[in-house]
């Protein structure tokens, strides 16, 4: 309660006025635009959002299912009724589902895992037919038996800890906790260390009874809840693994799934903490470090287990139809400039929160825009609203559509605006940093339904309250700009920005909708209305936010790209990287002093008989001058672009607009990132070992982290070339 009171007080201090300016960014006069946005808001209906969530989450609707076809059809009907030109594009997608799932332990402990979630009377859809069983999509087929080793969260650093205990997972099955990284990283790292199988469970300390009341009393995981999900190595490439770089249309050439570079070779299975407990209780070996200990009521050991574990998995490896719903309103003045909006419609089961809460907001925007059409308004630029299928298995619906229309999209796409799941709480936005001023402006005009201040002020208050030190609190409290995040992966924007260089945004609300239902049978309408957004008000808030982005990009006199913000952001990234190198150098020097003076030997328990560690490699000087010089040019070029826009009449602006939305494509590299050429953006990518988490300036950052100094130099030069290309492009406007 004290935290809530402090947050509310902070909001009150911040919310005396909503910042305003003479005209909206990109408009010579904003009278008509503000009038249209007011009319747009007036048509939004929270009750209708709730009705769509209820209808579209009424049955399981994974890709290729009867429910999936129904959901796509209903979405198409809504678009069509609202006056949009609507079609369904079908792709033939590889989507394996389980034939066999066996997990059992024998020996000291004999146990056969249930591998099934419990239907609840409090959750009306939890006992339906056609539910996908609990599994990790893209696990390999396998039949393995071995001892079990507990690997904490299964991150690279956890294996470093295991090595200190002298424990090797080679030839073993590992069990890892969900959390701290994307799920696919856990089996990836396990496979790299020689494990023959991987189990992933949700420990109750993270999103079960350790976090709050378990479902159905509260929103957190009960002892049988399981998080389904893809373990495709999407940091190599997303989309259908059997058609890399080409669309999965009928008759497309395919690689065998066993040869796909983004699929793992070991069997992987998610389990509940109810099924995990007997396995973990059987563990022998050292007591786990304190920071590894979870919430189950026994001592955690690392292993190996006293008993043997048998894991057997087999899948059908079938092609199934993926149904992308594409709705269009042709632009009245610039029909070949497209503003694209998307959310996926497939779920692992009923998917009320993920993804239908976001899809319902998108439908509400489409309905309201349809009402605007009836007043005689038409967008200057073409609007393309998309409902993607097969996002959950690996961003397949959007990626295949992008690969199918790549040339046209690079010529015509002004921007892609994405959303996914949505709930009560605070604005979250990430994307191309030239859009940062636009997001700041819009966030100051959308009102939070609970506190009645702008979503900008509420998000700022939260950052100030939660900041870790007084300086950070002061900085957050005094900020006048929304801190637009950088894009990693995990939703449908990835192929647009990271493969084609199309400027993108990802927008949603949350933070007061925590729970453990993610990818389980309990992601239902009943769960959503109790714990996520009971009044559906944040569906309206999302529609207002993304709707404003769409409408302002559609009708702007000067498209709202401000590359001065991109320059400032990238300059910050480079300063951070330079500091990282200095810290690595200092750390190496200190480590070697400790090693030379036998500090680790003297500090250890003599009975452990530790060997003196090997000296750490010295960190060389890293020359960032080419990037720093490129940034100096970009600063001038970005300022030039803004001056050009200010001085032009409508005809001249139209010419500049036709070029400026393609500027971000200059930041693509021809070769792509090392070891994953599908990812071509030089500034944003998911991390090789973070999955969803972003790595900014990824080629340079990951080379530094891997202490590959030759590659660091190469990537610095590649990034500098990309920035120079952007500067030259802007100078030529």
Features:
four-stranded antiparallel β-sheet; alpha/beta; 39% helix; Glucose Oxidase, domain 1; 15% strand; disordered N terminus; single chain; seven-stranded mixed β-sheet; 23 helices; Transcription Elongation Factor S-II, Chain A; 3 domains; 733 residues; 19 strands; Aminopeptidase
Task: Give a brief description.
By secondary structure, the chain is of the alpha/beta class.
Low-confidence stretches: 1-21
Q: What is the number of beta strands?
A: 19
Query: What is the CATH architecture term of the largest domain?
Result: 3-Layer(aba) Sandwich
Mean pLDDT: 95
Class from secondary-structure proportions: alpha/beta
User: What Rg is obtained from the alpha carbons, in whole angstroms?
Assistant: 26 Å
**Rough shape?**
globular
Our measurement of the CA-to-CA distance between the termini, rounded to an integer number of angstroms, reads 54 Å
Report the portion of residues in β strands.
Answer: 15-25%
Query: Spatial order of the strands in the main sheet?
Result: 1-12-14-13-15-17-16
Explain the overall architecture:
The protein is globular and about 80 Å long. A hairpin with a 7-residue loop joins strand 18 and strand 19 (694-696). Residues 1-21 have low confidence and may be disordered. It is built from 23 helices and 19 strands. It is α/β, with parallel strands linked by helices and 733 residues long. The strands form five sheets. Strands 1-12-14-13-15-17-16 form a seven-stranded mixed beta sheet, sandwiched between helices. A four-stranded antiparallel beta sheet has the order 3-2-11-5, with helices on one face. A four-stranded parallel beta sheet has the order 6-7-8-10. It has three domains: 21-95 and 319-449 and 483-560, Aminopeptidase, CATH 3.40.630.10; 99-315, Glucose Oxidase, domain 1 (3-Layer(bba) Sandwich), CATH 3.50.30.30; 564-731, Transcription Elongation Factor S-II, Chain A.
